[in-house]
Chromosome 11 open reading frame 54 (Strix occidentalis caurina), 253 residues
Amino acid sequence: MKELGPFNMKGLKENFADAQVSVVDCPDLTQEPFNFPAKGICGKPRIADVGGVPYLIPVVQKEKVYDLNTVAKDIELPGAFILGAGAASSKILGVNAELIPIVQTKSEKKPAVNGSYIAQINPADKGCLLEKYSSKYTDCEFGLLANLYASEGQPGKPPEFSACPLNTDEDVNNWLKFFEMKAPLICQPVIVSRDPGFDLRVEHTHCFSHHGEGGHYHQDTSPDSVQYLGYLLPAELLFRIDRPQETHLVGRD
Ligand SMILES: [Zn+2]
């Protein structure tokens, strides 16, 4: 076990009353509470920032559909185990939904295993509806945007797309539905320390749970008592795929 020095702790100490960082073995992710199709997040770690918020805001571009198997090839890691945060494919779902991607992409030897979740507004009670993607769909598609972490994986109608253009953060917040969720949540943050000018999303976190809640993480609602336990690996490479030609900074929270 290797302790990180005080320099590395600076940012954490500024944001958390108590923080500890150490290098440990990744827990077996095939076990509870994860139940992922791969054991770990190690081996050729890399990030893919695909599409972007400009494809959703101000006006949704429904033709923007991607496939995680193709992304795995694009980032030169076919068969990659992919985690992160993205939008569901509007071609498949027809409504706006958060995708919590957990996919062992296909390789020459094995077909893809899709352990993803989707979270959307429940048309029945307007609450949060979390479902296993594979309970309804068999593809590995997503739409509009995704922030993905890839490795070898070793050890109704809910609100439709906004009918009017979303021009400001206030417009976006009025359109989105916020829920206060119970712990524990299993979150999949993809974080970039700095954007060297690729129009990257520097933080994007989606979460799921075993109590029916999940979606896009916005912020702490109980900053005095919240606890985080994180297993993170620095990526060695970053790929920017289908970068929007026209961009803006609305809706990046
Ligand atoms: Zn999101």
Q: What stands out?
A: Residues 85, 98, 204, 206, 216 surround zinc ion (CB under 6 Å). Residues 1-7 have pLDDT under 50 and may be disordered.
